């Protein structure tokens, strides 16, 4: 049956450019079952003071992930697809891709991880009266304008990574509203860029180097369910140089990884939210009402359907945890008792369950890059203890796991002070694969129930495939109704309620964490940065 679905072109393809892996996921008619998957590992580079990915790696990585998908399809079903019922592309949100009239990059891709836009973000926050984070595309653009970068006068269009790839595959300059909301503020009444803010920005830079009004440089905004072009012959050749893939497949709007995470966890309705843990970690909470005031820790984006969402975005997620696990992985091999990566994770996570609730007075900072919520312009990973701390393996590993959630918890407490209430928080990411550990500690950090669904392990590429299936379904349902009726019907996630002892222990840990941020700030000043590790995390960004 699955072979016939694939060979007849009824399967749907989702592609996501994550921070450490490019993933391809194929689903069938029922929209929930994964038929096949492929992946390619890549890693960002720190070049000339900027976090970036070589643009050639975008295309070589995409082809490699698609080829890996084809290999999986052929090994399972002995068929090779020549077409798809729908395709969708998602990628890391935010960042800066400035293109000239020929569609070529004017400067290397600047990712969400860069924190060089503080002056621009502060000026724009004052101009609009809403928080403009350092990672947003408009902050990157305005910093380039402020710095009089020569390329500004040649900008023909701006986009995100998802929009860039989508444009090359379909020849359409569009963006899903969720991803667009990380470029420039969205007006919830229109589902488009805020017209008043656009006018304010044009007045701010009037007479400057920008060659056109900002609206003309930004991609068209589309919402989930709309069609966003078709695969061109050039796009088919980019994806599959063998020539077996035919043009013509319809595309849904390209989206950001935050939006696909919400879809993958069925967290697109008010009073729901999700936490995505990978190289970065962020929480998305769908709002019932607007926030009462501006908060530096929160920014307002949207779901793929355009509903307002409060986002707590932390630049640093589980990469430092993965580095520690990698060290123990090597120790096991050096001792003559090698373990595979999953076994090392399981062993260390299990040990963390034996720790003291407050991690024995230990502290772990996972800041490989700057962390705006913590007031850090650069990152310095630190492991800190006092002479009276209880330095055990169990406490050390609980401290590392708590450290992943430390900055996120600071932002979520601001959201709680706003009176925002949640029925349930969903979580996804590789660190939740070891059952009952990271999920339990996140519940303690949030003091709220945390659910992990089986589908969450499939990640954003699966969520993007679901969005593509929604766009070609012809249904009259909205996105929330479609997910509930056709994707998650009958499924029940595993939920961990916060344990009082863990909640108290994490609160004690967080008090030390806040105080110890002065140590982090001193380290940024005292210690020069070293080149970033090139080995990607082994499980954290699935």
Automatic annotation (TrEMBL):
Signal peptide: none annotated. One of its GO terms (molecular function) is D-xylulokinase activity. It comes from the Bacteria. InterPro entries: ATPase_NBD (IPR043129), FGGY_C (IPR018485), FGGY_Carb_Kinase (IPR050406), FGGY_N (IPR018484). This is Xylulokinase. Coiled coil: none annotated. The keyword Transferase applies. Belongs to the FGGY kinase family. Keywords: Carbohydrate metabolism, Kinase, Transferase, Xylose metabolism. Residues 12-238 form the Carbohydrate kinase FGGY N-terminal domain. Its EC number is 2.7.1.17. Residues 274-471 form the Carbohydrate kinase FGGY C-terminal domain.
């Amino acid at each position: 049956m699955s072979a016939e679905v694939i060979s007849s072109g009824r399967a749907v393809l989702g592609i996501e450019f994550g921070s450490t892996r490019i993933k391809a996921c194929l689903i069938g008619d029922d929209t929930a079952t994964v038929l096949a998957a492929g992946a390619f590992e890549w890693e960002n580079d720190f070049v000339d003071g900027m976090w970036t990915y070589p643009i050639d790696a975008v295309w070589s990585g995409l082809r490699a992930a698609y080829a890996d998908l084809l290999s999986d399809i052929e090994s399972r079903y002995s068929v090779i697809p020549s077409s798809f019922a729908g395709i969708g592309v998602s990628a890391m949100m935010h960042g800066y891709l400035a293109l000239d009239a020929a569609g070529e990059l004017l400067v290397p891709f600047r990712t969400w991880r860069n924190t060089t836009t503080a002056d621009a973000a502060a000026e724009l926050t004052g101009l609009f009266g809403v928080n403009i984070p350092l990672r947003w595309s408009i902050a990157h653009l305005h910093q380039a304008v402020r710095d009089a970068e020569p390329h500004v006068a040649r900008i023909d269009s701006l986009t995100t990574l998802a929009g860039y790839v989508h444009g090359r595959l379909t020849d359409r300059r569009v963006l899903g509203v969720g991803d667009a909301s990380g470029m420039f503020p969205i007006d919830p009444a229109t589902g488009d860029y805020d017209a008043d803010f656009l006018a304010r920005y044009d007045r701010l830079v009037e007479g400057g180097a920008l060659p056109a009004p900002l609206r003309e440089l930004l991609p068209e905004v589309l919402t989930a369910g709309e069609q966003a072009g078709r695969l061109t012959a050039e796009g088919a050749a980019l994806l599959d140089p063998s020539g077996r893939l035919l043009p013509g497949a319809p595309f849904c709007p390209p989206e950001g990884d935050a939006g696909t995470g919400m879809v993958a966890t069925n967290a697109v309705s008010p009073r729901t939210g999700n936490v995505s843990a990978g190289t970065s970690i962020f929480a998305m909470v769908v709002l019932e009402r607007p926030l009462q005031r501006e908060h530096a820790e929160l920014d307002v984006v949207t779901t793929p359907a355009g509903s307002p969402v409060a986002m707590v975005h932390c630049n640093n997620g589980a990469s430092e945890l993965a580095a520690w696990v990698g060290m123990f992985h090597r120790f096991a091999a050096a001792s003559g008792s090698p373990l595979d990566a999953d076994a090392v994770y399981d062993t260390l996570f299990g040990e963390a369950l034996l720790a003291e609730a407050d991690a024995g007075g230990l502290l772990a900072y996972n800041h490989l890059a700057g962390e705006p919520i913590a007031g850090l312009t650069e990152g310095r990973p630190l492991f800190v203890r006092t002479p009276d701390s209880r330095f055990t393996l169990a406490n050390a590993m609980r401290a590392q796991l708590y450290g992943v959630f430390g900055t996120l918890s600071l932002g979520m407490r601001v959201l709680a002070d706003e009176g925002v209430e949640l029925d349930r928080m969903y979580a996804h990411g590789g660190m939740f694969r070891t059952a009952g550990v990271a999920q339990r500690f996140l519940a303690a950090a949030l003091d709220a129930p945390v659910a992990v669904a089986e589908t969450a392990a499939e990640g954003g590429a699966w969520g993007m495939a679901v969005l593509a299936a929604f766009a070609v379904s012809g249904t009259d349902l909205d996105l929330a109704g479609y997910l509930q009726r056709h994707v998650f019907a009958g499924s029940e996630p595993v939920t961990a309620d916060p344990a009082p002892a863990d909640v108290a222990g994490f609160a004690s840990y967080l008090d030390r964490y806040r105080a110890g941020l002065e140590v982090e700030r001193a380290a940024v000043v005292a210690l020069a940065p070293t080149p970033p590790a090139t080995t990607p995390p082994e499980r954290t960004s699935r």
